[in-house]
Amino acid sequence: MRTILDILKRGIIEDGTRNKNQLRLIRYYEEEGFEDSDTEDNILAWYEALDHKSKDWNLNPRMVERELKSAIANWYNKVKN
Description:
Blueprint: H1 4-10, H2 18-31, H3 36-49, H4 55-59, H5 61-80
């Protein structure tokens, strides 16, 4: 399994792993004490900064942004309750 540091440095390097990597980053930022809005900003910056091997991101980044917002809200609500 890839480390968080590797994911942050290299991005999505395998087809079909966007959701898994994104969820790991959400959990990482939440565990580090980031607010949900900061988590979203950091992950969007990560998407924009790297050349990801993600069909979803490359074809429809707006859809990925919407799914990211939803995934962050779900995770943060889950850990609050």
